[in-house]
Input
Amino acid sequence: MEKANINWGELGFNYQKVDKIYVSYWKDGKWDEGSLQDDDKISISVSATSLHYGQQCFEGLKAYTTKSGNIQLFRPDMNAKRLQNSCKRILMPEVPIDKFIDACLKVVEANEKYVPPYGTGATFYLRPFVIGTGDNIGAGPAPEYIFCVFGIPVGPYFKGGFNPVKMTTAKFDRAAPYGTGGVKVGGNYACGMLPHQIAVNDGFADCIYLDPETHTTIEEAGTSNFFGITKDNKFITPDSPSILPSITRNSLLTVARDYLGMEAIEGEIKIDDIDMFEEVGACGTAAVITPIGSITYNGKKHIFHSEEEAGPKITKLYNTLYGIQFGDIEAPEGWIVKLQKQCAK
Ligand SMILES: Cc1ncc(COP(=O)(O)O)c(C=O)c1O
Output
C-alpha cells in the first residue's frame, strides 16, 4: 500500500479530508447496514435534536501501525461500550459492539494510505459519533439517527519531548452530580471551553476539575483523567460517577499493577492531600500520559517531581502503554484488534 505524501512527524491534530467515511442510518426502529462514502458531508434537517438539544455523543480511538507493518486498534470494544452508555443516557439507540468495531476497521482499511507508518509516532485517529436527526422541533428524542465514523492522521503528541505541563484548578464544573459527566456527550465539552480558555489565558496548559458536589476532591484534568503516584509506589486515580471512564486510565491501572508491580487503586483524592504524590499526570487517548509538573490551587503552587522533566515512574508507565499500543510489548489478552484478521474476506 502506497502511503499518502504526508510529513507524518510534523502532523498536528487537525481535520483533513481523507478518502472515505462510514455512515449508518437509524430509522423505523433499526440501524441500516451502513456504508462507506467519499463525501465527508452529511445532510440533516435544521430541526435535528443534535443541533438544538445536544442529543449527540462521540468517541475517540486510534489505529496504530506496528513494526511488522500490521495495523491494529487498541481496545475498541471499550469505546463501543462507552458509546452505548452515552447513547442510553440521552435516549439514543445503541450501536451494537460488532457494528462499531466493524465500522472502525472499514474506515481504517479504506483510508490505509493515511495510516501513519511505524516509527513516526503518528497514528490514525478515529472519531465515531451518533447524532439525533430527522424533523422534530420539540425537546424530545429524535425520530432518526446517524452513526458516523471518520478518521484523520494525527501527529506524535510530544513533539518537543515528554515534558510536564502546569495546571490550575477550575472555578467552573464540567459536570453536575448525577449529570452527564460519566458519558461522552458534546455538552460536556461545550461547557469546558471557557474554563480551559481561562486557564490558558492565565498561563496554564489546562485546568483540574474538582468534584461538583463539594469541590474538595479531584475529578478530571481538562479532557483527560487524573492519576498520581505516591512515594511508596501506589498508583491512585479518582473514582466518581461524574468522571468519564477513560480507557487509557483503565489500561494504566492494569499496566501499573501487572507490568510494573505497583499497587493500583481507584479512590478519592482530596485536593488538600495533593502533596502526597511524588508524580502526577493526566491520561487519555490523545497523549497517553501528560506529566503534570505543578498544580496551582487557591493561589499556592504544588510541584510534583519537577516542572521541567517527567518523573521516572510516569515515564515507565508511558513507555509501557505506548509500547503495548504500537505492538512492541505484549498486550493483555483481548486488548488488540488487528485489521487484517477482521477484514479478511
Ligand atoms: C472528559 C474526558 N476525560 C477523559 C478522557 C480520556 O479518555 P480515553 O482514555 O478513553 O481517551 C477523555 C477523552 O476521551 C475525555 O474527553
In short: The pocket of pyridoxal-5'-phosphate is lined by residues 60, 220, 223-225, 244, 246-249, 284-285 (CB under 6 Å).
